[in-house]
Inverse folding.
């Protein structure tokens, strides 16, 4: 049975490996299909396609769109959307600008107590044009010796209750879903059973997302809590949603390993059938 992992990050956002390295890691992990789903950008796609050529690995192009509801962040994976769709470009650029502004604001606050931290230090841990987030601030804090690793940074200085946290503006999930659909993509809610998301994704909210064109739910993900998965599975049954399973690989930045959760070939086929804005790249 083919191994299909539909959620992974690269240095185009907050993964630690370049898109070509992600593909190499997918080969190493024995995957048949890997999706590249960077936060709010499609800029890693072409490098991933080039790297896949001749490997036998299929790259499913996607992204992970940042949305927000009642102060909770809800991530919407979008597969096979047209990366040149004007509204799609405009919205992702706006979110990325908001993220940049928010990260600078967090750095200003943190620098009061950790004076070696500067914006320039943070930029050293990004690639040109990358979607900037807390992981890059974490990398700077690690390099400066303030914390041992990314995870420790997220558990302390960067935690939302850590005293320095700032939210960034993002569209509501229903608008994110509509945007992905408008671009010909297939929207799937990422880690819908994680603490913050499952709190705001009540049954009536999910019904409205389905009405807006939601395609599926990422039911197998290490952040999903078991009691939430039970409810979300019933929702997936009720609306015949696509069920995915994925690692949310971030390279060495997170413990998540490629292939730790996977998607069945049948569910993968439903995504490919439904997406009209781009095509999977068969390497
Ligand atoms: P942000 O989107 O800027 O609020 O930062 C949250 C992002 O950090 C999520 O996409 C997480 O996947 C990512 N992240 C990367 N490494 C870690 C880690 N070690 N612990 C927690 N979150 C992490
Ligand atoms: Fe991330
Ligand atoms: Fe996410
Ligand atoms: Zn992710």
């Amino acid at each position: 049975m083919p191994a299909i992992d539909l959620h992974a990050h690269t240095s185009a956002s907050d993964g630690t490996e370049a898109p070509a390295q992600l593909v190499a890691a997918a080969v190493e992990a024995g995957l048949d299909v890997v999706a590249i789903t960077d936060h709010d950008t499609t800029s890693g796609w072409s490098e991933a396609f080039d790297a896949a050529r001749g490997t036998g690995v299929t790259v499913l192009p996607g992204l992970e769109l940042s949305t927000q509801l009642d102060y909770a962040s809800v991530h919407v994976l979008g597969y096979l959307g047209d990366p040149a769709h004007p509204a799609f470009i405009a919205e992702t650029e706006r979110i990325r600008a908001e993220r940049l502004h928010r990260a600078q604001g967090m750095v200003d606050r943190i620098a009061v107590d950790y004076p070696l931290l500067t914006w320039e230090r943070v930029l050293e841990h990004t690639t040109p044009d990358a979607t900037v987030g807390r992981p890059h601030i974490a990398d700077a804090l690690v390099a400066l010796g303030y914390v041992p690793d990314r995870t420790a940074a997220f558990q302390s200085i960067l935690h939302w209750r850590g005293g320095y946290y700032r939210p960034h503006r993002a569209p509501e999930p229903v608008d994110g879903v509509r945007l992905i659909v408008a671009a010909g993509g297939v929207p799937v809610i990422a880690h819908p059973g994680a603490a913050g998301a499952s709190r705001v994704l009540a049954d009536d909210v999910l019904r409205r997302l389905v009405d807006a064109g939601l395609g599926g739910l990422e039911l197998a993900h290490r952040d999903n809590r078991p009691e939430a998965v039970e409810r979300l599975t019933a929702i997936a049954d009720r609306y015949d949603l696509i069920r995915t399973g994925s690692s949310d690989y971030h390279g060495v930045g997170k413990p998540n390993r490629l292939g730790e959760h996977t998607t069945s070939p049948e569910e993968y086929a439903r995504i490919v059938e439904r997406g009209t804005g781009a095509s999977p790249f068969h390497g």
